[in-house]
Structure formats: structure tokens, C-alpha cells
Design goal:
Number of helices: 22
CATH class of the largest domain: Alpha Beta
Radius of gyration: 29 Å
Largest sheet: 7 strands, mixed
CATH topology of the largest domain: Rossmann fold
Number of domains: 2
CATH superfamily of the largest domain: Vaccinia Virus protein VP39
Helix content: 25-40%
CATH architecture of the largest domain: 3-Layer(aba) Sandwich
Number of strands: 22
Strand order of the largest sheet: 3-2-1-4-5-7-6
Distance between the termini: 84 Å
């Protein structure tokens, strides 16, 4: 079909095309036109300008996008450009020999046919995971990425995260070959509906595939769905590829640019807009894969239970054994090896009688392996400290609330002192916490506003993230809302707001506890200001808080509900879960 005829057909079919501005509009359009060919309309009639195909083969599908979608920029990744791709786009030349037989006429160049002249083209002669590709593309710089390179589990599993990071909020990540035989789908949003692989197309038969069922693509499906389990904010959709030559021609599309060896569907996900929280079961009614929900049937003693959306994940919520400890000190850690070494060196100076009453839990929020908490503690294995490390399985941006929830879910004792890794807990503060345990354990009292000072003895404002309370009180308040995960800010603010809204629970200023917080004069005399934390030196930088500020405002106004499911990630015990190491030096 000539480019002139294609343009005439497009004029006839597309002059009154509706604009596709929102996710809802694009999704409705793709449901009405369930073929990957119509992804190009998200550029022609929608908001997508910068797009990429990974695995270009002979360039037919890229040509379809350039003709029908005419994006402002089109990137291509192909490790072995064949002669047809080189003919279409000479800049892709690789010196590869021509195949022995040609089943179709060799195409002429895009430039000679006026194709791609309005698009900025860039070609990578590379594998999809080569650093030349990954490092050359800035995060959040693409609107659309289509993965059609290696069609196997190992490669797709590695491609998903780096290419997802390239997407702007609101963009789409999609990929080919989303079908299976008889395998059971995983528990994630949209994952239950996986099309069956069907017979090869006439194009495939002509290219030697045979008149039989197409190969099973469970490896692709499994890789995508495992990734979605780690991204419960995402929902997967898929095409059905029920197009014909006539149906595509009616919409001004060239069948010969779209057809492949198979009718394998494509999967696709939308990246949430900035400021849009990860939907929870309370917000959407769709099952998510937060591992736990809070059972408040006994309001004073809430319990963690399995999320019915993915009940199998609850079996991983296994607390440490309590070796006669009274207090868990939980540290939130990310790449701060120097700080953790200072903590360990401090722990070993504490009196043995005090150490016997304390368990230390470090939540490593997916630090690189060479900077992990485990790497530090393995060097210190001689110390007589009850310390364990649980490591989050995914490097989730600003997963502060999720890490706090994990600490309170896995702590071996009812009483928990939660601190950041840049705060040193002194012996006097540990002893104070144990003395004040009766308030935190007997009532829903939550100690916040801990004083802190710098090593040079200058006082500093209170630390907003340190908490002393019971596990049950933490969950009675509602824990940390993981809708705020992924963006910076307002984790402490929203927890304090939920605390104010929880009947029977009280916020106690650890810096200045006052008499009205206690039941009688004797208790008032015993309630004393907390000794300060030691604030370790750290350089601070400003971060964008707009997204979480918008989420908080919507939750306060009732436009968004507070989340009800927690631990939307995987984790594993990596150190000390089998009990404390014995100290040889004491």
C-alpha cells in the first residue's frame, strides 16, 4: 500500500477522531480497538509524543508507528539489524549478510517514501539491557515503550523495571507475547485474565512455523506478573488481536506492517500520574497484594490478618522469636553503612543486663548488596547483641511508610521503639523507654516528639519519625498509609493525623510529657522527659513534596480513603532470624 493511499485512508477515517487525553479515554479506546496496532493512535490522537520499540526486527511495526502515529520522537533498539531494517533505515546498518531467500520484496528507505520525516529518530544497535541503552535514556523521559525483544522469562524479568523507570507519569509500558497454555496466573491486578495461545498466522506458516498452535509464552506472562506483584499500584490489560486486513484498512492501517508470525496478544500498564496514590482495596474494590490487613473486630487489640486479595502472602509475615526481650529497637536503614557501624560499636558498650532486655530489628529498605545492613553485621558477628535484619526485596522510592509497617509487623516484642538510622539511641533513652513501657502497653499511648542533639551538644528540634508504642496501638491507629509510598513527605504528618482521629489513643510529647496524660499524681511524678537522641551528621537536600501533599489533602477532604492493606512488597530475613550470635569478647 503506497504512502499516498495510506494518507488518503487516514484522512477519510481520522478527520473526526476524538482526542485521547486521559487514561480512562485511552483505556476505553483500546478496549473498543483491542489490537496492538492501535497503540499508534495514542500518539496520533493522544498525549504521547516520545516512544520506543525494543526489538525492532525488520522494522515493519516501527514503520506502522511512524506512518500512523507520527510521534515527535521514535527510538529503536535492535541488536541484529537485518537487511530489511537496513533498507528501511540505513542508519541501522550492521554489515550483516542478506538472508539466502526473500519472501517479500525488499522495502525502500523510509526517507525515500517520506516516512519519519516529522519524527526525531534514534537507533541503538544493542541488546535491550546494554548499558549503552539504559544509561543513555533519562528517567521519566518516554511516553510509550513497547518491549518485543527477547521472548523469554529471564530477559523480560530484567527489562521491566529499567524501562518502566524511563516512563513519564501517565505513560504506558507494553510488550508482545502475552499468552499461555494451562498455567495458573499469579495474584495481581488484572492478572487472572490471560489469553490462550492460538495457531500461527498465515504469515507465520509462510515463514516456516507450521500449521499448529503457537509456542507457549508463559515465561513472558510469569515475568510480567511477578513484576506486577511487586507493583500493586499497577493493573495489567491486554489486547486480543482480532484484526483482519479489512478491519485495519477501514482505519487507514496497513495489515502487512502489523501482522506477525502469531496472533499473540500484547500486555500493557499505565504508570500512575504524579500525585496519584497506589490504589488500595478500600479505594478501588480491586484485590491488591498488600500482604496484610488490620482486623479491628476487637477494637482494643487489633490483629494483622491475611489480605483476601492475595492470602498466600500472609504466610511470610513471621515474627522473630522473642528471646525473653522486653523492647524491640527497630531501625530503618538504607545504604548508611557508616552509621550502622557506629550503632554496632555503641551496642557492644551497653551493659549486658540491658542488652538481655532488648531485641534489635533492622529493616533494610533494599540497599545495594555491597552497602547492605547484613554486610555490616556479618563483620560484627562476635558481638553479644540480639540483632536481626529483614531486607525489602524491591528498591521502592521513598518506601518509608512501608518499612515502618514491616517493622511493626515483624517485631518480636509488643513494645517497639522505632528510629531512623541517623539517630543514635543512648543507654539512658533505652532505660527510659523500658521505664515508660507501662504507659505504652496499658493504654493506647504513643510517644512522639523525641528530643535530639548534635554531637557538638547543640540542641535541635524534636525528631518527628521516632516512635515508642505497642504493636497493637500502632495498628489501632492504622499504621502508615502506603498510598504515600513512591513520593517524598508527609509520612509523619499523616500518621499523627490518624492518631488524632483514633478514639482512645493519645499522643504524648516525649520532650515535655504533661500531667493530663496520666491517670493520677503518682503516675505524673513517674512520667519524665525523654533523654535526647544523638543526631548523627547528615547532609540534607530538598525534595519535591507536591505529590504527597496532594494525596494528603484529598484524604483529609474525603476524596480518597485511608488505605487498608499493607506491606505491598516482598521481603526476606537475611541475618539473625535464627537467634542471636554468641559473644566471644565479653
Amino acid at each position: 500500500m503506497s504512502i499516498l493511499v495510506m494518507m488518503m485512508l487516514q484522512l477519510r477515517s481520522g478527520t473526526c477522531a476524538a482526542r485521547l487525553e486521559t487514561k480512562e479515554q485511552m483505556l476505553a479506546f483500546l478496549r473498543a480497538h483491542p489490537s496492538r496496532a492501535y497503540f499508534s493512535r495514542l500518539m496520533r490522537d493522544g498525549p504521547y509524543d516520545v516512544a520506543m520499540e525494543v526489538g525492532v526486527a525488520d522494522g515493519r511495526f516501527s514503520e506502522h508507528f511512524l506512518v500512523d502515529g507520527q510521534p515527535k520522537a521514535w527510538y529503536m533498539v535492535e541488536s541484529f539489524p537485518n537487511e530489511k531494517l537496513q533498507a528501511r533505515y540505513p542508519a541501522s546498518t550492521s554489515g550483516r549478510r542478506a538472508p539466502r531467500r526473500q519472501l517479500e520484496e525488499m522495502p525502500t528507505s523510509w526517507a525515500s517514501r517520506g516516512i519519519g520525516t516529522t519524527s526525531r529518530l534514534r537507533f541503538f544497535k544493542a541488546f535491550s539491557l546494554d548499558k549503552a541503552v539504559i544509561k543513555a535514556i533519562a528517567p521519566e523521559s518516554f511516553d510509550f515503550v513497547y518491549l518485543d525483544g527477547a521472548h523469554d522469562y529471564a530477559n523480560v524479568a530484567l527489562e521491566l523495571e529499567p524501562y518502566y523507570r524511563m516512563l513519564r507519569p501517565g505513560g504506558m509500558l507494553a510488550g508482545h507475547d502475552y499468552c499461555k497454555y494451562d498455567e495458573r496466573p499469579l495474584a495481581c491486578r488484572g492478572c487472572a485474565d490471560v489469553p490462550a495461545c492460538v495457531t500461527y498466522t498465515e504469515y507465520g506458516v509462510r515463514h516456516g512455523k507450521g500449521d499448529r498452535r503457537a509456542a507457549n509464552q508463559w515465561g513472558v506472562v510469569k515475568a510480567v506478573q511477578e513484576w506486577l506483584v511487586r507493583h500493586p499500584e499497577l493493573e495489567v490489560y491486554h489486547t486480543t488481536e482480532n484484526f483482519t486486513r479489512t478491519s485495519l484498512a477501514q482505519d487507514g492501517m496497513d495489515y502487512d506492517l502489523v501482522i506477525t508470525n502469531t496472533y499473540n496478544p500484547s500486555w500493557y500498564v499505565f504508570k500512575p500520574e504524579s500525585g496519584t496514590p497506589a490504589q488500595s482495596s478500600s479505594a478501588s474494590g480491586s484485590p491488591l497484594c498488600g500482604a496484610v490487613v488490620v482486623d479491628k473486630s476487637t477494637s482494643l487489640l487489633p490483629r494483622l490478618g491475611a489480605n483476601l486479595g492475595c492470602p498466600s502472602r500472609f504466610e511470610h509475615v513471621q515474627r522473630l522469636p522473642n528471646h525473653a526481650s522486653d523492647l524491640t529497637v527497630a531501625y530503618l536503614y538504607y545504604r548508611d553503612t557508616a552509621y550502622l557501624e557506629r550503632h554496632v560499636n555503641h551496642w557492644v558498650t551497653l551493659p549486658r543486663d540491658l542488652l538481655k532486655r532488648i531485641s534489635i530489628l533492622i529493616v533494610d529498605d533494599c540497599s545495594p548488596m555491597d552497602q547492605s545492613a547484613r554486610a555490616v553485621l556479618e563483620k560484627m558477628r562476635d558481638c553479644d547483641v540480639r540483632a536481626a535484619v529483614v531486607r525489602v526485596g524491591e528498591d521502592i522510592k521513598w518506601n518509608i511508610g512501608g518499612a515502618r509497617n514491616l517493622a511493626f509487623a515483624l517485631a518480636p516484642t509488643e513494645l517497639v521503639l522505632l528510629v531512623d538510622a541517623d539517630q543514635l539511641v543512648t543507654q539512658s533513652l533505652l532505660e527510659w523507654s523500658l521505664r515508660h513501657s507501662k504507659y505504652a502497653l496499658a493504654r493506647c499511648d504513643i510517644f512522639l516528639d523525641f528530643p535530639r542533639k548534635f554531637p557538638n551538644d547543640l540542641r535541635h528540634r524534636v525528631h518527628p519519625a521516632t516512635i515508642l508504642t505497642s504493636r497493637s496501638s500502632y495498628w489501632r491507629v492504622g499504621g502508615c498509609d502506603e498510598d504515600f509510598v513512591g513520593n517524598y513527605g508527609f509520612t509523619d504528618v499523616h500518621f499523627a493525623a490518624r492518631l488524632r482521629q483514633t478514639p482512645g489513643c493519645r499522643r504524648i510529647s516525649s520532650e515535655r510529657p504533661i500531667i493530663e496524660h496520666v491517670a493520677n499524681f503518682t503516675d505524673a511524678m513517674a512520667l519524665e522527659p525523654a533523654p535526647p537522641l544523638i543526631h548523627l551528621e547528615r547532609s540534607h537536600s530538598s525534595h519535591d513534596i507536591a505529590a504527597n501533599k496532594a494525596i494528603l489533602r484529598k484524604k483529609f477532604q474525603g476524596q480518597l480513603p485511608w488505605s487498608t492493606d499493607y506491606l505491598r512488597f516482598s521481603w526476606e530475613w537475611v541475618f539473625g532470624a535464627d537467634g542471636p550470635a554468641k559473644c566471644r569478647s565479653r
